[in-house]
Design a protein that fits this description.
Family: Belongs to the YkuD family.
Number of helices: 3
Number of strands: 8
Protein name: Murein L,D-transpeptidase
Mean pLDDT: 96
Keywords: Cell shape, Cell wall biogenesis/degradation, Peptidoglycan synthesis, Transferase
Helix content: 10-25%
Low-confidence stretches: none
Order of helices and strands: EEEEEHEHEHE
GO molecular function: peptidoglycan L,D-transpeptidase activity; transferase activity
Shape: globular
Pathway: Cell wall biogenesis; peptidoglycan biosynthesis
Strand content: 25-35%
Length: 149
C-alpha cells in the first residue's frame, strides 16, 4: 500500500496515470479519455477531458463502470478559462462548462478499449476495471489529481 499522502498525475499524450506517494512513484495505469483530439475541455458536451489541478471529491461503486471517483470539475480556474473563451467569442454565449467528470472503469467486457487507446468517455478518465478497483482501494477523498497534455 502507498504511504499517504498520495497524488495522481494523468498525462493525456502518454495515455498514462501515474500515482505517487511520499516515497515517489508508486504505480502506473493505462487510461483513455473522451474526445480523440485530447483537447482541454471547453464546454459541456464536447467530450473533452479537462486539464488542470483537481481533487477527488467523492467515491462510489458504480453499476456500469465498476468504481467512480468524482473530480471537483469545474474548479475556479476552469470557470475562469471558460469565461475567457466566452468573452473572446470562441464558445457560444449560452454554453455551460459541464460537470460530472471523474475516474472510472469500463463497461463489462470492454477493457480492450484501454488496450487499443480508444477514447470513448464523455470527458472522464477510464481505466481497466481491475486497475480502477486497485486505485479505489487506496485513494482517499481529497487526493490531488493533475491532468496535463
Amino acid at each position: 500500500m502507498p504511504i499517504q499522502p498520495i497524488r495522481i498525475v494523468i498525462d493525456k499524450s502518454d495515455y498514462e496515470m501515474q500515482v505517487y506517494d511520499v516515497q515517489g512513484w508508486y504505480a502506473t495505469y493505462p487510461v483513455v479519455f473522451g474526445n480523440n483530439s485530447l483537447a482541454d475541455k471547453c464546454v459541456e458536451g464536447d467530450r473533452c477531458t479537462p486539464e488542470g489541478s483537481f481533487r477527488i471529491v467523492n467515491k462510489r461503486k458504480h453499476e456500469k463502470w465498476s468504481r467512480y471517483m468524482g473530480l471537483d470539475y469545474p474548479t475556479p480556474a476552469s470557470i475562469a478559462r471558460f469565461n475567457e473563451l466566452k468573452r473572446q467569442g470562441r464558445i457560444p454565449k449560452n454554453a455551460t462548462p459541464g460537470a460530472g467528470v471523474g475516474i472510472h472503469g469500463t463497461w463489462p467486457h470492454d477493457e480492450y478499449m484501454i488496450d487499443r487507446y480508444s477514447n470513448w468517455t464523455n470527458g472522464c478518465i477510464a481505466l481497466k476495471n481491475e486497475d480502477v478497483q486497485d486505485l479505489y482501494s487506496y485513494v482517499p477523498i481529497g487526493t490531488p489529481v493533475q491532468i496535463k497534455r
